[in-house]
Amino acid sequence: MDFKQTVFVNNFTNAILDPELPFDYHVKDGGHIIANTAPGCWGPMITPALKGGHEVTQPVYVEGAEIGDAIAIHIENITVTSRATASGNDRPNPDNFINDPFVDPKCPKCGALNPATDIEGIGYEAIHCHECGESFLPFDITNGYTMVFNSDLGLGLTLDKDHAEEIAKNSLEWMETPENSIQNPITTLAPNDIVGLVARMRPFLGQLGTVPSQAFPDSHNAGDFGQALLGASHEYGKTEEDLIHRTDGHMDVNRVRQGAVLIAPVKVPGGGVYIGDMHAMQGNGEIAGHTTDVAGVVQLRVEVIKNLNNQGPILLPVAEDLPYLAQPFTEKEYQQAQDFAKQWDGIKLEESLPISFIGTGASLNEATSNGLERAADFLGITVPEVMNRATVTGAIEIGRLPGVVTVTFLAPLEIIQNEKLLEVIKRQYDR
């Protein structure tokens, strides 16, 4: 294999993460991945030819990454390139799919499965089946908006009907959809239910991870969205036991942003790092189901951590994104704690640093249990101990409803057995 120090990725999957497919990109351990990502969610959701809810980059093989290892993905830069987008709540159209509107949309007139489509005009009737010309969407927007961005100011603004329709007529240019993307731009529909809303931009990656050990639609590579695959009749149908093959790359955790480090499990040789679903902003929970999907340029640095055996992602957020109780102690605080401990026969203080485990499941309760169990298994302690530590030195935070959470707490350095991981954590928090 020809491993490169820097890999430029500008090709996309058909929304399927398939471990059987060959890798077209190969990067050195310690090298960089630069990608022009395509918008996620709504664009692919109105593009029936895509068999999943996103259009992520083709995975990158990382030198030396073997099953049981992990890849520390350092997010060095995220730049939004879209000048506009559209979004809103969704409602599936039951006549326009078989099992799952993300995976197997079908034309209600001719019955074509995952047909190519053509755009004719703008608005909710603009997407047409290429086979028979029927206007159809797998999803409707129940309440939506079109938003333009002023990246210099870090602001987004929602538009009225006239301006939304102006954007719709030149959607590819306003969204700066990458050349190799096949999605229909969501601004074509020109939703405009909310006008004059101002929002702060804080971009992050809704999709970042590694290839699962079974084929998954990209948006379903998580414990909550994966539920839709259980018993499905299409080729990606799963059993409950099959979900263990996921890598939870679809997180929608808004702390997966510039400056953070995501430590992704390796479940296939080379890992297969993929990127997508960049958002301009999102509150915890993504309660609307969707947010501001944008195109952008991402720069990552990757390094292999041997034999880590983490079953799901581990996140090292930017320090300011940590829960208050999980922030590393300052030198002054630690000295105060040492002085206090002397009053109690010099009890030895723990040395600790933050760590955040991603948990996913069918509900927030199941996701929390998953995150607690992953933390306990990884650190070799009990779930009740993780519960105590997350309660007094951290927090459970919602990534996405219905079932993605982060379990964050201060972990004693003595129970973090992998020296390379410990080095990465210390670097992240300048210790």
Explain how this protein is built.
By secondary structure, this protein is of the alpha+beta class. Among the domains are: 4-81 and 205-314, Acetamidase/Formamidase-like domains (Jelly Rolls, Sandwich); 319-429, no CATH class. It contains seven helices and 20 strands. It has helices spanning 42-45, 161-169, 171-175, 331-342, 364-379, 383-393, 419-428; strands spanning 4-9, 16-17, 25-37, 60-62, 70-80, 84-92, 117-119, 127-129, 139-150, 155-158, 198-200, 204-209, 216-217, 261-265, 271-279, 296-305, 314-316, 352-360, 394-400, 404-412. Strands 1, 3, 4, 5, 12, 14, 15, 16, 17, 18, 19 and 20 form a twelve-stranded mixed sheet that branches. The chain has a four-stranded antiparallel sheet with strand order 6-9-10-11. A hairpin with a 3-residue loop joins β19 and β20 (404-412). α5 (364-379) packs across α6. It is globular, with a radius of gyration of 22 Å. The two termini are 37 Å apart.
